Amino acid sequence: MHFHVPFLLALLINVAPSDANLLARSTETVLRAHKHAVKRSAGLARDLRLAFNGILVEQNKLGSSRVYCVSSPSDNGSTLTNGTSPNPSSPATFAPNPTSTGSKGSSSSTTSGAAPTGSSSASSPWKLSQNFQGNSFFNGWDFFTGADPTNGQVTYVDQGTAQSAGLVNINNAGNVIMRVETTPQVATTRKSVRITTSKTYTGGLVIMDSVHMPTGCGTWPAFWSNGPNWPAGGEIDIVEGVNDYTNNQATIHTNPGCTVPTTNSSVLAITGTLVGGTNCAAAQTGNQGCGVRAVQSNSFGSTFNNNGGGVYAMQWDNNGISVFFFPRNSIPSDVSSGKPQPNNWGQPMAHWPASGCDPFKFFYTHSAIFDTTLCGDWASSAWTGSGIPGQEQSCAQRTGVATCEEFIRNNGAAMNDAYWEVKSVKIYQTS
């Protein structure tokens, strides 16, 4: 991606000093960092707006597309299982997948199906395209090993390193574990894991069943998807938050021209609350995009984990893009049976209607992504903040440590809950 000098100068004028320093870094670093960092700065901007009574600090980062490794994974069709594991580190057979540092490419699976109808016993128009679960979960994912683009205190490692260090495994419940290093003290960064699906998709229904997600002061986990040439290909943040947050935030970031028609949740027919503006264009909103915060206090973090987790579903069709959340005890039977019927699910947590944002103009060729970073642009800036659901008391007050970086370097035991436990990720399409 190339940028004209006036454009870069304009951005430098409008960002905080820390962002100007970031933009002053080498072109290579900036290019590698852009899209992941932009994603994170959007959440930071929204939370600072809420936590500090309208004082908005936005972070603009430039660069080209994320690193992708695109190949054809071996899709498997094993069925969805239930149950949780009290011991996430219990080992079981691990199916290795070749490691990769990433290369650009395209291998897409595209559809633009309309919303389905029918009951859980009826045939669903959504057909399973990719299935990740059990011992073969990591087949079809690539491990990112570049520097953390969000300035987090992590070192992303390849699959072999992650496995030998005990950061990834399949536990006795058949669930995949992806954790952060818990060594008592580290000099700078902790090892962590970031993975990206090898195959891409345009349109579809992505269903992620998780038992546990990373939580605690200093953590910053996300499950999301991204297209090429950011923001041209769009970005859909399905699960994201920091520190002790308990309410999930879903966000989209696009090229200019994508808007939400109203801030009224009733008019949008959603259960969540719009926390950003109605203009979703990254370039015009300081990378803020259009965010929606869940009202369910068990949709993220420790309360999500204490409830046995749940299911997130992202529906992308001709009607727009929607995100649904189902707590563990409220998962629709059609989801469990592998015959999803989104029309029967009621109101989504978030919805960005096609009337204001063409879902196939502003979004295409996406890869799904899991990552967990520590501190970084968002979690560090929120360290002394309070007033966000779940973080009524700041992490600085709760831990007695002045900075996020100091805390994570010296408190490995505090990272014991910084892990994903995922039952499955299933990607459905209509053709």
From TrEMBL:
SUPFAM superfamilies per record: Concanavalin A-like lectins/glucanases
Entries under Pfam families matching the protein: GH16_XgeA
Tagged with keyword Signal: yes
Source domain of life: Eukaryota
Disordered: region residues: 73-126
Domain GH16: 80-387
Keywords associated with the record: Signal
Gene3D superfamilies documented for this protein: 2.60.120.200
Regions of compositional bias (Low complexity) in chain numbering: 98-125
InterPro entries in the cross-refs: Beta-glucanase-like, ConA-like_dom_sf, Glycosyl_Hydrlase_16
Signal peptide: 1-20
UniProt biased composition (Polar residues): 73-92
Name this protein carries in UniProt: GH16 domain-containing protein
Source organism per UniProt: Somion occarium
